[in-house]
Amino acid sequence: MAQADTGGAGRLGAFVRNSGYLRKWLILGVAIGIIAGLGAVVFFLALRYTTELLLGGLGGYDVPTARGDGNNPGSPGFSRAWAIPVITTLGALVSAAIVAKFAPEARGHGTDDAIEAVHTDPRAIRARVVVVKMVASALTIGSGGSGGREGPTAQISAGFGSLLTRWLDLADDDGRVAVSMGIGSGIGAIFGAPLGGAVLAASIIYRRDFDYRALIPGFITSGTAYAVYGAFLGFEPLFGQLVTNYAFDPAQLPWFVLIGIVSAAIGYLYARTFYATVNLAGRITVPGGAVLKPAVGGLLVGLLALAIPQILSSGYGWVQLAAVESTLLAMPLWIVLVLPVAKIVATSLSIGTGGSGGIFGPGIVIGCFVGAALWRLADLAGAPALPAGPGVFIVLAMMACFGSVAHAPLAVMIMVAEMTGSFSVLPAAMITVGIAYLLIIRTDVGIYQAQRLDRETAAAERAGR
């Protein structure tokens, strides 16, 4: 039922609903973009200070950071190794307790809930979920849990899109676009990737389709979010420029194909392992399980980190280090080889057991070390037509590994190019990502389970309700 056009919200709602296409989406796009940018700033700072307090202050361990996050090389080792499992356990415990008490739907990575709202009810995201998600994710990731910072920011801006849909009494079709724009702009803002965020808004809700209605409004929203975020925290790409002046070399085509095949396999393993953990955790019924299961996951992550510290927290700093030949070669080979699987396990334990955080960011780190491992092995073997440094392999695998399993190959390809300042690799990426995606779509596996197959499937589902 439409709201009566009385009072501020009623008059504003009528004004927006009765506006033409340009004015409507300019108003909504700028409003959602401002909140997305501010939400990304607040969460970034909350996560930074939480990490410095918990892992740095209490654990005596400085996590490496990417260039856009301060370019801190991190601690050479643990000064209080015994404290790391304690911190990861307590962080997960407190985070899960907050979620269980105030907003149970804030557990997990959150992006699926926003996608589900697009398909079912764009008014459904509660305002309190935004606050709870931010606090819980800062505690989970800041205490060392393996998760990405994009999930909370996507839920903040998607939640605001849902709030506007309720407050202004927007039509369901407009509400769906508003929430989609929120998802894309939140992720684009926190990663400093506005174009990729806009494309993501139009592609993330389907496996094999594209919502053209969200694309142009998404430019406005994502650009606004990027401007707000950058005004506070700077506009430098998250990882700087990992690849400079790369020239496409046809002799490297076999490498592009190999990276695509291996990335698809690791992406498949990521999704299957993550949701196997979700299902296993769901079948375990114990008193207080909603709190205890994430705490056990946090304990296991902390113990694993004593052997492989690279799994802790978001891991973006390790991407920065791995992209430099000298620091990659300084890492033990076994660490580089096992890290993709170790990061999958850590993310599944941290988020799949009910912790709070994103799964996009870990997918980028997993892809990075797929590329790093392939380059290290090829370099050891003296293989021909190998790029001079690991940067090209790393960027291509980051794009292919998560772009394929997220069923958003174009969006992720653009986002990683923006995050790494590596647009020169796009011709090679088209081959690598295309191969990875074509392999993944032969299966029923995807990292976002709320995605619908296409627009026709989603429309038929809504019509049948």
From TrEMBL:
<feature type="transmembrane region" description="Helical">
    <location>
        <begin position="318"/>
        <end position="346"/>
    </location>
</feature>
<keyword id="KW-0472">Membrane</keyword>
<keyword id="KW-0869">Chloride channel</keyword>
<dbReference type="GO" id="GO:0034707">
    <property type="term" value="C:chloride channel complex"/>
</dbReference>
<dbReference type="Pfam" id="PF00654">
    <property type="entry name" value="Voltage_CLC"/>
</dbReference>
<keyword id="KW-0868">Chloride</keyword>
<protein>
    <submittedName>
        <fullName>Voltage-gated chloride channel</fullName>
    </submittedName>
</protein>
<feature type="transmembrane region" description="Helical">
    <location>
        <begin position="358"/>
        <end position="378"/>
    </location>
</feature>
<feature type="transmembrane region" description="Helical">
    <location>
        <begin position="214"/>
        <end position="233"/>
    </location>
</feature>
<keyword id="KW-0812">Transmembrane</keyword>
<keyword id="KW-0406">Ion transport</keyword>
<keyword id="KW-1133">Transmembrane helix</keyword>
<feature type="transmembrane region" description="Helical">
    <location>
        <begin position="25"/>
        <end position="47"/>
    </location>
</feature>
<feature type="transmembrane region" description="Helical">
    <location>
        <begin position="253"/>
        <end position="271"/>
    </location>
</feature>
<feature type="transmembrane region" description="Helical">
    <location>
        <begin position="291"/>
        <end position="312"/>
    </location>
</feature>
<keyword id="KW-0407">Ion channel</keyword>
<feature type="transmembrane region" description="Helical">
    <location>
        <begin position="82"/>
        <end position="103"/>
    </location>
</feature>
<feature type="transmembrane region" description="Helical">
    <location>
        <begin position="177"/>
        <end position="202"/>
    </location>
</feature>
<dbReference type="InterPro" id="IPR001807">
    <property type="entry name" value="ClC"/>
</dbReference>
<keyword id="KW-0813">Transport</keyword>
<dbReference type="InterPro" id="IPR014743">
    <property type="entry name" value="Cl-channel_core"/>
</dbReference>
<feature type="transmembrane region" description="Helical">
    <location>
        <begin position="390"/>
        <end position="416"/>
    </location>
</feature>
<feature type="transmembrane region" description="Helical">
    <location>
        <begin position="423"/>
        <end position="441"/>
    </location>
</feature>
<dbReference type="InterPro" id="IPR050368">
    <property type="entry name" value="ClC-type_chloride_channel"/>
</dbReference>
<dbReference type="GO" id="GO:0005254">
    <property type="term" value="F:chloride channel activity"/>
</dbReference>
